[in-house]
Amino acid sequence: MEPLGIYLHVPFCTAKCPYCDFYSLGTQAMTDAEEVMDAYVDAMLRELAQWGQRLECRQADTVYFGGGTPLLLGSRRISRLLQGVRAAFALTQQAEITLEANPATALAQEFSRLHEAGVNRLSFGLQSSCEEELRLLGRRHTAQQAAQCVLDAQAAGFTNLSLDLMLGLPGQSEQTIADSIAFCSSLNVPHISAYLLKVEPGTPFQQQGIQALCPDEDTQADWYLLAVQSLARHGYRQYEISNFSRSPETQSRHNLKYWRCQEYLGLGPSAHSFLNGSRMYYPRDLDSFLTGAGSPGYLPVPDGEGGGFEEAVLLGLRLNEGISLRELGARFPQADCAQLARRATPLRRAGLLEEGEDRLALTPRGFLLSNSIITKLLYGV
Ligand code: SF4
User: What is the pLDDT of residues 47-101, one digit of tens each?
Assistant: First the structure.
């Protein structure tokens, strides 16, 4: 049995960013934030213990603290949570343990404590090195503060660091994108995630009509390709639609599990899991998690089957390595892989799929049209 990935969703941020629709609550507006965070950690420890029993202390080789802003919990609470993970699961010696952080404040001592507790990878939401873009996004840090955070983390012993960038912003330009990438590179960070801004329903960005100010689809596509090239020039090789790494060792091992349809257990409000061929999730509701966590009858909501043929194609094509038709045929003997190969031929000629007999992999231009290419491959339309 393959080792499991464990995701812990930490639903707290200082305040909500206007573009974000992840489930998180602003602690600034709470009068009892410290108590609520303590209660959340206690609930998570109960839930971890419950799942440790259910899965018979199964082996796990990645832990990911996502959110939200997990760093808000502070090193003491994060350390308790990690002890809970270790008590409930057999965590491998070389497990990748990632924590997402907002680079709003430099916390040199906190980074040292986190490193001692076993966290070995930090992912910072930088988004841009351009102050105007940071202001537009409602970020509460400057580029200089973010740089200081990275330096503090490195001084505390972290080498496996990642920075998030955002593309397709109103007022952004090819120059500011190139500047942000050069900024990350100068900090000697081995991993970058670059996402196109998506204006999500119900967010302040949508209510303010920000979409109308965003560059059109063609410009976004040009900027994405430019970013891929610029990242490559700085030594960041693309390994997934939005992810780039300076070496295979610094690719996100936890996130690779999602795209390779491997099993992961997600705990906490809004967290998703894929276990035993089934998908499930916790409702976006902290209160129900606080009251339900740890009791045998409290279970995530079933979300259908997962890991089938279509999903393997859909998720596998997000990766640069793509999918092997031979491996796919061995995993799904009833699937018509020959038909997939036939449908791939014109897409290869159009430069949307890489050349190769066995492997189906999107080119950077193909990544931009991934949804329609996958529909064409799977359904011929
Ligand atoms: S800090 Fe991250 S998770 Fe929190 S509101 Fe902003 S974008 Fe969302």
Answer: 999 999 999 999 999 999 999 999 999 999 999 999 999 999 999 999 999 999 9
In the reported structure, the alpha carbon of residue 43 is separated from the centroid of ligand 1 by a whole-number distance in angstroms of 22
Q: Give the model's confidence band at 356: pLDDT under 50 very low, under 70 low, under 90 confident, else very high.
A: confident
Q: Tell me the average pLDDT of the chain.
A: 96
Q: Which of 20, 52, 17, 50 is nearest to 284 (CA)?
A: 20
Cβ–ligand 1 distance for 3 under 6 Å, the answer no
342 occurs within a structural domain: yes
For residue 322, give its domain range.
309-379
Q: Which one-letter amino acid corresponds to residue 36? A: V
16 lines ligand 1 (CB under 6 A): yes
DSSP codes of every residue in 190-218: SEEEEEE----TTSHHHHTTGGGGSPPHH
What is the value of pTM for the model shown? Answer: 0.96
Ligand 1 contacts CB of residue 269 (under 6 A) = no
- What is the whole-number distance in angstroms between the Cα of residue 20 and the centre of ligand 1? 6
Ligand 1 midpoint to CA 101 (Å): 10
Q: Are residues 338 and 254 in the same domain?
A: no
Check pLDDT > 80 for residue 340: yes
User: Is 223 found in the same domain as 158?
Assistant: yes
Ligand 1 centroid to residue 357 C-alpha, Å: 42
